[in-house]
């Protein structure tokens, strides 16, 4: 039996960086069609800001193994809608996941395949359990980077299809200075 070498890394709790991790950068241009307000999207696209960065330590896709990643989700809005991650379900849909809040303020939208959505507020120290089958997206509702850790099965994979096409049945917006989770007017089953 060949054993893998154990690994310990220190996450920089200020910046979210994991030393030695693979870095992925998602700019606004990679989120075309995701936000409700197309006019606001196109205006902000001139700057094409970074919406989030992911620092991932991933293994080969074997069952039983685990991946982990931090995400640094920047503050910002497209129209009234707060910046968010694309959101996905798992290619192996029955794979669960754990998130842990490190810095900043935000939350997670979760949704069943039938379109029932839930919102869980997150801050430093919040643990979120993402059960099997639930699609998930994080949202930054504050004005500093929202940083969190995700731990997920190495064979879970990502399925972006349904969310890219239909979005979530709820959206997270700012209205009169308040954070509101409201029905997505563009949602159809
Ligand atoms: O894959 P998305 O929806 O862009 O969101 C990024 C985050 O989600 C994960 O894919 C884990 O669910 C991580 O790689 C990262 O923390
Ligand atoms: Fe996931």
From TrEMBL:
Subcellular location(s) of the protein: Cytoplasm
Ranges where the Glucose-6-phosphate isomerase prokaryote domain occurs: 25-183
Biological process annotations from GO: gluconeogenesis; glycolytic process
Alphabetical list of Gene3D superfamilies matching this protein: Jelly Rolls
Keyword Cytoplasm set for record: yes
Pfam family, one: GPI
Pathway: Carbohydrate degradation; glycolysis; D-glyceraldehyde 3-phosphate and glycerone phosphate from D-glucose: step 2/4
GO cellular component: cytoplasm
Major localisation: cytoplasm
Family of the protein in this entry: Belongs to the archaeal-type GPI family.
PANTHER family in UniProt: CUPIN TYPE-2 DOMAIN-CONTAINING PROTEIN (PTHR35848:SF6), OXALATE-BINDING PROTEIN (PTHR35848)
Subunit structure: Homodimer.
Name by which UniProt lists this protein: Glucose-6-phosphate isomerase
């Amino acid at each position: 039996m060949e054993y893998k070498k154990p690994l310990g890394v220190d996450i920089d709790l200020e910046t979210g960086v994991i030393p030695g991790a693979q870095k992925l950068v998602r700019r606004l241009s990679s989120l075309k069609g995701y936000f409700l307000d197309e006019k606001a999207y196109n205006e902000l696209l001139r700057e094409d800001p970074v919406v989030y960065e992911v620092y991932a330590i991933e293994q080969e896709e074997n069952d039983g193994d685990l991946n982990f990643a931090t995400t640094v989700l920047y503050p910002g809005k497209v129209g009234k809608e707060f910046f968010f991650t694309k959101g996905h379900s798992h290619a192996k849909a029955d794979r669960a996941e754990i998130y842990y809040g490190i810095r900043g303020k935000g939350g997670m939208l979760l949704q069943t395949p039938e379109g029932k959505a839930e919102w869980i507020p997150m801050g430093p120290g919040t643990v979120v359990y993402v059960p099997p089958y639930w699609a998930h997206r994080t949202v930054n509702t504050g004005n500093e980077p929202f940083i969190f850790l995700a731990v997920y099965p190495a064979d879970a994979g990502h399925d972006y299809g349904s969310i890219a096409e239909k979005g979530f049945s709820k959206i997270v917006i700012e209205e009169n200075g308040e954070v509101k989770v409201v029905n997505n007017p563009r949602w159809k089953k």
